[in-house]
Amino acid sequence: MPVIWGFDLSEMSWSAFEHKKMFDPRWHLRRERFIVYQLAMLICLAAECTATYSLTKYEDLQTHVEAANGRGAQLHNNDLIAAECLTIVFCVLVATLFGAEFFFLLFFPQRTYPKWYNGTKKSLAVGITLGVFAAALMSSVIVARNSAFITGVDEATKQGLVEFFYRPPLRYNVYSTNIAYVVLLWIGLFCTAASTVIMFIAAKHDAQCGTEPRLSLSEDERHLKEGRNGATT
After folding, report:
1. Global pTM?
2. Which label site among 23, 40, 67, 125 has the fewest CB atoms less than 10 Å from its CB?
């Protein structure tokens, strides 16, 4: 198998996904990292997909409202679209960063990375966590307080358009999809923050103690027994 950028691809195998190997307790924080990384990726992915669905619906609503009236009706929902775009971008970055961490930890747990890589990884993790926080805060405020609105036509025409194109509603907090993506985003934020913290702890441990696995309890006992026998002899 080829070696690419120092990664020996012969070390990659489907057996790495076995429960016994994935959650091998000999590796420092291996089990915890896999669990928290997956939670961050999956929950942020769910928030991203829900936000994308909401964004598509509100863009369709805008298209339909503006196409249904020939007298210049315009629907304004840029605030929600901006919040959802921010959500999508940073949730993708969560999946990218911690997905890469998951992959490297799974197949190359003993690899030692240079300082520049660890520093870049930590900086990205902090920046992405702050970005998810900004997306969650912005989304919460906009969904809770704001509403799409129609301009360019009289009140009677507005009412007719609202009644005909009633879903999604103009009021953001009435639409359950918006509530769902905001809730998922906050949960994803906590998981992303936890992933960042555990990444820092694991990187510090690897820098101080190396990436070799710890001896199991049976190996410790065997080594201790051999040491006593040697001393007796």
Report:
1. 0.81
2. 67
Q: Does residue 134 form part of some domain?
A: yes
pLDDT (0 to 100) of residue 33 = 86
| CB contact set of 145 (below 8 Å; sequence gap of 6+) | none
Please name the residue ranges forming H helices in the chain. Answer: 19-22, 30-68, 78-107, 115-145, 155-164, 176-209, 217-232
β-bridge partners, 150:
75
Residue 167 belongs to a domain: no
C-alpha to C-alpha distance for 75 and 149, rounded to whole angstroms: 6
Cα–Cα dist 200/125, whole Å? 9
Ranges of residues in the chain with a pLDDT under 50 are: 217, 219-221, 223-225, 231, 233
Dihedrals φ, ψ of 23, to 5°? Answer: -110, 35
